[in-house]
Write a structure and sequence with these properties.
Number of strands: 8
Number of helices: 5
Shape: globular
Helix content: 25-40%
Order of helices and strands: HEHEEHEHEHEEE
Largest sheet: 6 strands, mixed
CATH topology: Rossmann fold
Strand order of the largest sheet: 3-2-4-5-1-6
Structural class: alpha/beta
Number of domains: 1
CATH architecture: 3-Layer(aba) Sandwich
Length: 164
Amino acid sequence: MQTMMASSPPKAGIELFERILSAPGGLIALEGGDMATLLQDFRAIARHTGQAVYLWQPDVGLGSLREAHSKVPGCQRLGNALRYMQQSMHFGVYLISGIELPLSAMDATLLRQLARAPSGHLRRVVLLDPPAALVEHLGEAIVRIGGEADQPVRPRLRDGRWVV
């Protein structure tokens, strides 16, 4: 049963999405936080803004977050999905959930290639709560971002009024 989404995406989700887009590399580890809520936020962002945001899951494959029933053909296996991401010439944020170790040598190589800063077009591959051993293995090739919301916003004085 689906619930109705808010008319605009949550502020915390937008801030996290912006941090992903501004990351210095193409491969990101999103660690901690409530992944189910983050996925709902990203789905709302994709629908609200029209951004190309995809989610890969082991039992489902690669699909669009904007269009719930839109699956990318031939991307059931992780390796095929990573090749698709690598060959895509369009903007895209690709979320990978449920990645398990051990990875094949080819999958690890593809992740390292995706980590290199893209030239010409923006592409981000985001591993959702990846295993610590994978993050360590990728080392400096992966950008680490916390999934928790930033520190609570402190009120500040603007034009004689306190604003958040």
